[in-house]
Specification:
Layout (H helix, E strand, L loop, with lengths): L2 H8 L3 H8 L7 H13 L6 H8 L4 E7 L9 H17 L2 E7 L4 H11 L4 E4 L8 H8 L3 E4 L11 E4 L1 H14 L5 E5 L5 H16 L9 E3 L4 H12 L7 E4 L2 H13 L9 E5 L10 H4 L6 E4 L2 H17 L7 E4 L2 E3 L10 H12 L1
Parallel strand pairs: 1-2, 1-3, 3-4, 4-5, 5-11, 6-7, 6-8, 8-9, 9-10
Antiparallel strand pairs: 10-12
Helix pairs in contact: 1-2, 5-13, 6-7, 8-9, 10-11
């Protein structure tokens, strides 16, 4: 159905129908709702180009990634975020513009998007502890929402984030309650704000139990399977090895599990693992092999929900400028799976080591 046909069904002019669907304030709310309901009932979708011309907007939201982060495009976390955001874009008639740019040209990319009018707003990914993009986007004048938070900028901007500090403190406390004292943290890059918060949650849990952190049990890098494997292998080879791992993502957690198996150990009898798995829509922690009990004990938050919330908020900022900043802090659930158990007793570990080396 096109605009003319929808107008005929409603007995209204095309101008009135168009203005109602495009959010013009002079259309009475009762009339607008009548038109919106009819559009949904008859499956009408406005032509994006026509809507852009009518509103003076690009009807698009931008996502800019530096080349160094190109792996994000195939990262299931990023993909699930985009899937959630796309649900909102589709519902509001917006397009997604993804720009992959050289690291030293990221700021120029934002300015070019604004100058060309290619997008109406921006979603900022992978915020760093001291991120220069907030003052840049303010200077440019593009509405934006940050997926995550930037510690050194306070709360005077819009963001959607998970409570990383609380999630990792709670996960570390769970392992401590199981008797583990040698807990390895396989973290993301601590220049990233989320990883810094997770580190502080882990350290707070140790401090509360009067356990001094061991630098040899703390790793930070790009969250790949091979990194998880390398970090876990090194911690298992220590004179006083790790008995548990707290991983910042499902991907390095898989590497940690491989390291445990290669060391001839069993998860969770010998080594426990907790991961942050982001409750991915299509990478189930349990899956067919896991049955009703998930493989990994995990702190879980819906990254797809975060994508929807970010998209809804940036569209709201585009359509209604001048709003006060809003923040949305998501809490993570701790889901107990089959990867955690009581810490092995020192004597049992010694006997097992002796048997393996005999």
């Amino acid at each position: 159905m096109n605009l003319k046909q929808l107008s005929q069904v409603l007995g209204l002019s095309q101008t009135t129908v168009s203005r109602a669907l495009n959010g013009y304030p002079e259309v009475a709310e009762a009339t607008r709702q009548k038109i919106v309901d009819a559009a949904e009932r008859h499956g009408y979708r406005p032509n994006a180009r026509a809507k852009s011309l009518a509103t003076g907007r690009a009807m698009a939201v931008g996502h800019v990634l530096p080349v160094s982060a190109k792996g994000e495009i195939v990262n299931p976390v990023f993909a699930d975020f985009i899937a959630g955001a796309s649900e909102s874009y589709l519902a509001h008639g917006y397009d997604l513009v993804l720009s992959l740019v050289p690291d030293d040209a990221e700021e120029d990319a934002y300015r070019e998007l604004a100058t060309k009018g290619s997008v109406d707003g921006i979603i900022v990914h992978n915020p760093r502890i001291d991120d220069r993009r907030i003052p840049l986007l303010r200077d440019i004048g593009l509405p934006f929402v940050v997926h995550g938070r930037i510690s050194r900028h306070g709360d005077d901007y819009d963001w959607v984030d998970v409570n990383n500090l609380r999630a990792f403190r709670r996960a570390a406390e769970f392992l401590l309650d199981l008797g583990h004292r040698r807990i390895g943290l396989i973290n993301g890059q601590t220049a990233m704000d989320f990883a810094d918060r997770r580190l502080h949650g882990y350290l707070e849990a140790l401090e509360a139990r009067e356990i001094a952190p061991d630098p040899a049990l703390i790793a930070s890098d790009l969250m790949t399977e091979s990194y998880g494997h390398t970090a876990a292998s090194a911690m298992l080879a220590l004179p006083d090895p790790a008995t548990a791992f707290l991983c910042s993502s499902m991907i390095p957690a898989l590497g940690a599990r491989r390291a445990i198996e290669e060391a001839g150990l069993d998860m969770p009898r010998d080594v426990s693992v907790i991961t942050h798995d982001d409750d991915l829509g299509y990478l189930s922690n349990g899956g067919a092999a896991g049955g009703s009990v998930p493989i990994f004990t995990a702190t879980r938050s819906s990254v797809r929900l975060a994508g929807r919330l970010c998209a809804e908020r940036v569209i709201d900022l585009v359509q209604t400028p001048g709003q006060a900043p809003q923040q949305h802090l998501l809490e993570a659930d701790l889901t107990v799976g089959r990867s955690t158990g009581p810490a092995p007793r020192a004597a049992d570990r010694h006997r097992e080591d002796t048997a393996r080396n005999a």
